[in-house]
Design brief:
By secondary structure, the protein is α/β, with parallel strands linked by helices. 20% of the residues lie in helices and 36% in strands. The relative contact order is 0.18.
């Protein structure tokens, strides 16, 4: 099995797509007016408008309701990314080193989802990600 994507359900799909285009520096592929994808080397961020929930089961997902998931992106230089984004996005926290060896900063997307950018900085953290 291969983890392929995370899908976000958005009340305002255009602002959510614009946020992830800015963060990833990649243009979204709009596969339908209510659905876009940003394909990264590791996985895809799929963004569906709220009305796409009815294609599954009404009430099975809800925009602006995330209380458990944090989307994370490994970057080459978390300090540089923080500097690039801090004046354009809502900052949750400035770069800091976590106990597991990643230097991390966090932003919030337009609908409240926390988005972390991190760089492994300890030998153990770099070893965990070697070859990924």
């Amino acid at each position: 099995m291969k983890f392929a994507s995370t899908r976000l359900v958005a009340a305002d799909i255009k602002s959510v797509v614009a946020f992830y285009e800015l963060v990833t520096r990649q243009k979204a592929d709009w596969l339908a007016p209510v659905f876009a994808e940003i394909v990264t080397p590791a996985a895809t961020i799929a963004i569906g408008a709220a009305e796409t929930v009815a294609l599954f089961e009404e009430g099975s997902a809800e925009p602006r309701a995330n209380r458990t998931a944090i989307l994370e992106f490994m970057v080459d230089d978390v300090e540089a990314e923080y500097s690039r984004l801090k004046d354009q996005l809502e900052v949750v926290h400035e770069p800091k080193t976590m106990p597991w060896g990643n230097r991390t900063t966090m932003f919030r997307d337009p609908e409240g989802t926390p988005v972390a950018l991190y760089t492994p900085v300890t030998d153990a953290a770099r070893a965990r990600f070697a070859g990924r």
